[in-house]
Specification:
Helix content: 25-40%
Shape: globular
Structural class: alpha+beta
Number of domains: 1
Distance between the termini: 47 Å
Strand content: 15-25%
Largest sheet: 4 strands, antiparallel
Radius of gyration: 20 Å
Amino acid sequence: MTPPPAMAYWMVDDMVKNDDFERFPSRKSPRLKFFDYTASNYYFVTICTWEKRCLFSQSGTELNQFGEIAKRSFENIPQHFPTVKVDKFVVMPNHVHGILILNEQNVDLSTVVGQYKSHVTHQIHLIYPGCRVWQTSFHDHIIRNQADYERIWNYIEAKPARWQEDCFYSYTENELPRRGHDPALR
């Protein structure tokens, strides 16, 4: 039975007055507060697959069909955003690392990454409709100096060889397929 409108208003009003926000959880933004993500800068991004499933490869070095889509799409970011340069990146079985360089203040980092994720999802859905591809959002790190850049560049370069040491590697061992994923893709 639906409460009358006055009763429904009272219930919502009471929840707000009591600061009962546990019923309405909110996500904490992973972006740095007060930072202008349209600023010309170097950014290190990490984009994870849904539930960290190994959608792009099993070995860390040999990409499957979906991994090739993720790779080509990352390489093609400058075609969609001419003021953005792809410096260094790697597609791992369940995530993508990359250094993006924004050269002008006409696009923000979230727009670039969102467009990338959307394009990859669309291409994968042409092959495997309904497959959940990405986790919500992405991780970023603002590269602050040359030493920071070199450390991250070397990290990306060495990533495939160190796949078995990766914190996400355990997700590939003895997993049962979860909703939205075809066991044949594993």
